[in-house]
């Protein structure tokens, strides 16, 4: 008979419930790992999309700014200097050299469209007779605005362009001793961008003396 100590009793085997709980715990850990992995993928994809979206927005903004700058460079803003004692308005644009101009008048005045030779300008002689006749009654000193349609040709860099806008010619009449009245031009003002014969005639119907 052996004199050694009795061996300790074995650990009791796991119960079925304990095995189920252990398996469930392992599944939870696997599921959590999958969720973390998927979340990481989603975060990475979202970060990539946001970066791409920001770059696209920046590109769109840059393109819009370039187009706006191009429109600004290409736009004509006519101004006029009074010359020859108020008989002529010399047309100019600060950003472009004008090569040609065509001036159209309200239809009821019966004045044909004018294409000045040489530098673009508006000459009072073109419509002085019509305006003096329209203002023949009343005071010798009168003032008003005559809407005209101005089409100019010019270069935007190396690109030829054409612009048509509606302007008001600012005028006044003065009486002269023994020589009747005279028409003087005082300036040019933009009425609206664009325009056509119909809008010109409608404007003159409101402004006619």
UniProtKB/TrEMBL annotation:
Record key words, sorted: Membrane, Transmembrane, Transmembrane helix
Record region (Disordered): 1-22
Biased composition (Basic and acidic residues): 13-22
TM segment ranges: 29-52
Protein known as: Uncharacterized protein
């Amino acid at each position: 008979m052996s004199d050694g100590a009795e061996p300790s009793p074995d650990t009791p085997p796991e119960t079925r419930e304990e095995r189920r709980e252990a398996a469930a715990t392992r599944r939870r850990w696997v599921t959590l790992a999958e969720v973390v992995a998927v979340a990481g993928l989603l975060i990475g994809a979202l970060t990539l999309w946001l970066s791409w979206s920001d770059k696209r927005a920046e590109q769109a903004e840059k393109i819009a700014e370039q187009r706006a700058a191009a429109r600004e460079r290409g736009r004509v803003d006519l101004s006029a200097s009074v010359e020859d004692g108020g008989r002529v308005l010399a047309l100019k644009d600060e950003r472009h050299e004008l090569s040609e101009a065509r001036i159209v008048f309200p239809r009821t005045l019966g004045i044909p469209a004018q294409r000045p030779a040489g530098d673009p300008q508006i000459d009072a002689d073109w419509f002085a007779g019509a305006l003096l006749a329209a203002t023949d009654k009343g005071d010798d000193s009168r003032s008003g605005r005559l809407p005209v349609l101005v089409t100019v040709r010019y270069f935007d860099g190396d690109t030829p362009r054409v612009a048509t806008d509606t302007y008001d010619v600012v005028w006044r009449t003065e009486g002269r001793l023994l020589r009747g009245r005279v028409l003087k031009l005082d300036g040019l003002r933009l009425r609206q961008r664009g325009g056509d014969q119909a809008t010109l005639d409608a404007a003159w119907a409101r402004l006619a003396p």
